[in-house]
């Protein structure tokens, strides 16, 4: 089967890596001829935000999918009209692309998400109470396009673009659940994962799986995942990012209609990874078992501040000596501050052992140039 | 690092698949522009048996290795002379390529291997007793180039080429141990695996890991692996195929200086796979832990008799429904009788469960056209 992926970054790379278990052809559209997927796929140089490029790319593919949601969705609608299979479908990608539509989707389908108001960038009649979060309607990614407005004084920093202003949740934990659905309607979730952010970079720092949550919280999350996948009305793999607040209530922060950083530890931590599951949704195959093998976690390898240029990984050899520790680099030659360059997965027999290992590894490795 | 591999078959493919965890460039030399590695590497079309082709291919590589042992070894000696890194080294590849040299190597280093005599293809003074095994000096592969001569009548079938005639072992089990060594001299073995052959095809049918052997047999095997790796005097990954005879004695059948079919279940069955370990030998990295996660096994997917042409896998969807079961196809478009097209790995909690699963899967899948 000819599988076409919009975007050639690390998610596409790890997807192809896993899907080499099967006999398909992988085609990738990316503007960067040196991207992470360039040498392991049939590569087309082009802009996945450009209508013509996406339309042309999709013509001879059996299925078209994405590894980044910021793609030209009009072209995807047109491909669907032509009878092409697009997974996830254009409608849900469009909904998720635009924060305003995404928030309205949650509201409409009774999926708990923080209260919000729509801001057109010019209004000075803001009703929402301080502190609140401003999320740009489009273009946000990896912590970009999101800011907290604490008080009236902060209002001067307000971006003057279409955006969502939403209540700030008093966060106890950030959680994620990954759910997949195939065209036959079969669905399967991965165990809930705890995401620990790097506050300086506003970027995922590490994952802990399974999350330390009560069965009551688990039930809230299961209900959210079920509602979401029903409402989305699309095959595909989705990562629902959640807040657990200090009163024990779960809120949807946002959803990614694709493979997600919060599922990387499934590569070695679960019977099958998110990459395998995504493959199965693209081919409408029986979904894979997602059982966790004990405790697993992931540490992101992010370009250190003040280093740009040809990447060097300091301390990686020490990491390779550790048992049940797995290095995953993304084939990126150039580092820059905050750039995701790779990650390290770890298996452990307890949460304590896991955190100890992750924290120890963090002291060993530096991504410099 | 520029890693050059002679041969672009499934072993190379699974090696590259695993090594996509790191930031190297993979280059492959193979005569077939549609080989398993063609689209996932920097591909050079050429003959790995041709002196000029191998020499040219090696020029700009940081390390040169093999995924098949039938390569032009003179070119590898020349590359070494030029200061190139060749792993495993040309000397041990040459020794293993030629059954006569290989048998003499075992004898010289006191490694138990069945008694033998050298046959030049014309002599009629055969001293060895019936039944015996004839192994062609060169060109044997995957059960080809080996035959059993049971009695005087069979002598008419004797190949008239340089070969080894060796005592037929009264086999209780066929076993394999995979051992790796890096340039720092660190060595590590994988757990011993039982290989069950398909008698009709004289080809590996399935693996069972760990092997059901006594600690005394384990000690014999450990001693053999230790002697072998010392005598080989080369970094690299080696698979030593063994016979356990009915008196409890272990004999070396033959050794492969490369990744091996008897190690495929390490992909999901062990903390790290043979592919990861091989990578580490090529880059002189700390060797990976090889602990087994319970019981694991592998079933080869081999082209069915009477089917040639565009491959179809019957029953694969049923297999994908089974928990802890992993399909690995080799990206080969054409099947033919006996061709290795893929394999299926299985995890289990006991040997009985493992055998049950493997046998059940065998009833589900057929490789046809």
TrEMBL record, chains A, B:
Binding site for ATP: 99, 135, 166-169, 174, 253-254
Catalytic activity: 5-amino-1-(5-phospho-beta-D-ribosyl)imidazole + hydrogencarbonate + ATP = 5-carboxyamino-1-(5-phospho-D-ribosyl)imidazole + ADP + phosphate + 2 H(+)
KW Nucleotide-binding (keyword) present: yes
InterPro entries: ATP-grasp, ATP-grasp_carboxylate-amine, ATP_grasp_subdomain_1, PreATP-grasp_dom_sf, PurK, PurK_C, PurT/PurK_preATP-grasp, Rudment_hybrid_motif
Pathway: Purine metabolism; IMP biosynthesis via de novo pathway; 5-amino-1-(5-phospho-D-ribosyl)imidazole-4-carboxylate from 5-amino-1-(5-phospho-D-ribosyl)imidazole (N5-CAIR route): step 1/2
GO biological-process terms attached to the record: 'de novo' IMP biosynthetic process
One of the record's GO molecular function terms: 5-(carboxyamino)imidazole ribonucleotide synthase activity
Residue ranges occupied by any ATP-grasp domain in the UniProt entry: 103-283
Alphabetically ordered keywords of this record: ATP-binding, Ligase, Lyase, Nucleotide-binding, Purine biosynthesis
SUPFAM superfamilies: Glutathione synthetase ATP-binding domain-like, PreATP-grasp domain, Rudiment single hybrid motif
Signal peptide residues on this chain, from the entry's feature table: none
Keyword Nuclease in annotation: no
GO CC terms: cytosol
EC number annotated for this UniProt entry: 6.3.4.18
Subunit structure and binding partners: Homodimer.
Its biological purpose: Catalyzes the ATP-dependent conversion of 5-aminoimidazole ribonucleotide (AIR) and HCO(3)- to N5-carboxyaminoimidazole ribonucleotide (N5-CAIR).
Database matches in NCBIfam families: PRK06019.1-5 (NF004679), purK (TIGR01161)
Family statement drawn from the similarity comment of this UniProt entry: Belongs to the PurK/PurT family.
Name this protein carries in UniProt: N5-carboxyaminoimidazole ribonucleotide synthase
Native source organism of the sequence: Cloacibacterium normanense
Designated gene of the protein: purK
């Amino acid at each position: 089967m000819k599988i076409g992926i919009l975007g050639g970054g690390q998610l596409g790379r790890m997807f192809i890596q896993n899907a080499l278990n099967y006999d398909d052809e992988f085609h990738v559209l990316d503007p960067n001829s040196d991207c992470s997927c360039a040498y392991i796929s049939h590569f087309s140089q082009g802009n996945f935000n450009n209508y013509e490029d996406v339309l042309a790319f999709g013509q001879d593919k059996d299925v078209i999918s994405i590894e980044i949601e910021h793609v030209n969705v009009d072209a995807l609608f047109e491909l669907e009209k032509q009878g092409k299979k697009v997974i996830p479908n254009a409608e849900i990608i469009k909904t998720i692309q635009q924060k305003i539509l995404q928030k309205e989707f949650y509201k409409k389908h009774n999926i708990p998400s923080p209260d919000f108001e729509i801001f057109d960038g010019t209004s000075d009649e803001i009703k929402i109470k301080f502190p609140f979060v401003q999320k740009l309607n489009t273009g946000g990614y990896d912590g970009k396009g999101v800011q907290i407005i604490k008080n009236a004084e902060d209002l001067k920093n307000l971006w003057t673009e279409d955006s969502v202003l939403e209540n700030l949740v008093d966060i106890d934990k950030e959680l994620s659940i990954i759910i997949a659905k195939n065209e036959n309607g079969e669905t399967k979730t991965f165990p809930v994962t705890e995401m620990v952010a790097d506050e300086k970079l506003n970027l995922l720092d590490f994952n802990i799986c399974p999350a330390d949550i009560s069965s009551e919280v688990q039930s809230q999350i299961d209900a959210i995942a079920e509602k979401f996948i029903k409402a989305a009305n699309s095959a595909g793999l989705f990562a629902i990012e959640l807040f657990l607040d200090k009163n024990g209530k779960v809120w949807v922060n946002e959803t990614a209609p694709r493979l997600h950083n919060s599922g990387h530890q499934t590569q070695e931590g679960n019977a099958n990874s998110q990459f395998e599951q995504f493959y199965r949704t693209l081919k409408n195959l029986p979904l894979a078992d997602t059982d966790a093998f004990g405790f697993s976690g992931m540490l992101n390898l992010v370009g250190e501040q003040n280093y740009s240029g040809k990447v060097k990984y300091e301390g990686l050899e020490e990491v390779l000596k550790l048992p049940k520790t797995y290095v995953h680099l993304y084939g990126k030659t150039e580092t820059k501050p905050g750039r995701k360059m790779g990650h390290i997965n770890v298996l452990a027999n307890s949460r304590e052992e896991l955190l100890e290992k992750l924290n120890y590894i963090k002291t060993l490795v530096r991504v410099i140039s």
